[in-house]
Amino acid sequence: MKIKPRTGFALALILAVVLVLSACGSKEENANNAGNAGNAPANNAAAGGDASLDSLKGKKIALIMQFNQGTFSAQYVDGVKKQIEKFGGKVTVLASDNDLNKMVTNLDTAVNQKYDGILIDHGSADALTNGVNKAIAAKIPVVAFDSGLSVEAVTSLAQNDQLLAEKSLEALKKDSGGKGNIVKVWVAGFPPMETRQITYAEFLKNNPDIKEISQFGDANQAQLDAQTRMEAVLKQYPEKGSITAVWAAWDEFAKGVTNAIKQAGRTEIKVYGIDLSDEDLALIQDPASPWVASAGADPSSIGQVQVRYLYQKLHGDQTDATVQIEPVFVSRDALPTDKKITTAELGEYVKGWGTSEQGNTDYLKALEQSVGK
Q1: Does residue 200 form part of some domain?
Q2: pLDDT score at 326
Q3: Which terminus of the chain has fewer CB atoms gathered within 10 Å of its CB, N or C?
Q4: For residues 140 and 129, what is the distance between their CA atoms, to the nearest angstrom?
Q5: pLDDT tens for each residue of 160-216
């Protein structure tokens, strides 16, 4: 069939336009595909892909501590350090020698030196809130432990201090038959011990046959001070049976009073403590020791959990405002008599003790594996 020249020209023009439009469409599609390909790593990063893991490596973390004494603190710091190393980061510990003014200065230093993240151990809200707000304004994430902080964007970890006190006091009540004279060792000004004191006061109110005959406590050189003060109390009450038990709101206090009681030969007096470390466990296992039980959480695990929540923040996650670490109760009766154990083995004998998965995520597990390679 013949096509007239004018008709042929029109068809050729239409065909050219179609080809141009097709080419433009192909270019636009290719550009969109290229854009999507460019966004893929970002999407993977949000889901915890390789780009996200790489961005979490090499972080510089500051650990601001109110005090760093005793085996509980040592094991807590060890947990923090090991977890940060597993994530490919590095931690600097800034201890404050139980001086809140120095702790405030250490916090300001960490902010000014632009650390990637800040961990806080103890302290008080009054002293630390301004410095923490500076960190948040500088986009430095903060996770605190036992500090009493209530600042938006900060995750605060705490042991269940009420339950810690309840578990240790109920054991004292059971062993004493609900009556007797007791000594309390604690110190004000620390959020966890303030909470434990509330539980203790309620306990005395509900158990009128249990009488407090003395109380003392000093956070500076806590173990030595507790030993010296307990020695004085033992001289004040020299008759056997005049003191039934000691309730210590911190394991450093428990170690001090235990030493005083052993040296005086007054092991009819039983000691009940809070917090637990390898050194504490050895004393509880010793059949000649007056320290018979303690409530606590694995200090190393606490450090690990705190680091995980900080890295969740570094990843851009929304984290809970408060996280509670559930404690366990450890008594001599639950421990082996034929060998000495450490807290690393304690989970074999006491349910609930040991490595915690709290705060862990799939991408943090992948980060550990990536760093390990």
Answers
A1: yes
A2: 83
A3: N
A4: 14
A5: 999 999 999 999 999 999 999 999 999 998 989 999 999 999 999 999 999 999 999
Give the residue numbers spanning the domain of 133.
58-159+299-326+355-372
Residue 94 is predicted with a pLDDT of 97
Tokens of 361: 């995520």
Is the distance from CB of 305 to CB of 298 less than 8 angstroms? no
Question: Would you state the pLDDT for residue 50?
Answer: 64
pLDDT of residue 91: 98
pLDDT exceeds 80 at position 82:
yes
Instruction: Look at residue 81 and give its three-state secondary structure.
Output: helix
- The strand ranges marked E within 107-244 are 117-121, 142-145, 155-159, 180-185, 210-216
- Rounded Cα gap, residues 355 and 183, in angstroms: 34
Instruction: Please state, in angstroms and as integers, the Cα–Cα distance from residue 76 to each residue in 110, 277, 367, 371, following that order.
Output: 20, 9, 22, 22
Dihedral, CA of residue 241, residue 242, residue 246 and residue 252, to nearest 10: -100
Strand pairing category for 142-145 and 245-248: unpaired
Burial status of residue 242 (CB atoms within 10 A of its CB: 0-12, 13-18, 19 or more): middle
Residues 288 and 315 in one domain: no
Give the separation between CA 317 and CA 240, rounded to whole angstroms.
Answer: 58
**Does one domain contain both 264 and 308?**
no
Domain count, the chain: 2
Q: Is the pLDDT of residue 33 over 50?
A: no
Which residue, 253, 275, 305, 299, is CA-closest to 164? 275
Whether 226 maps to a domain, the answer reads yes
Amino acid at 368: E
d(CA 332, CA 237): 26
Q: For helices 278-285 and 70-86, give the axis angle rounded to 10 degrees.
A: 130
What one-letter code names the amino acid at 176? S
CA atoms of 192 and 201, how far apart (whole Å): 15
Contact, 367 vs 347, CB < 8 A?
Answer: no
Q: What CATH number has the domain bearing residue 313? A: 3.40.50.2300
Q: What is the mean pLDDT of residues 217-246?
A: 97
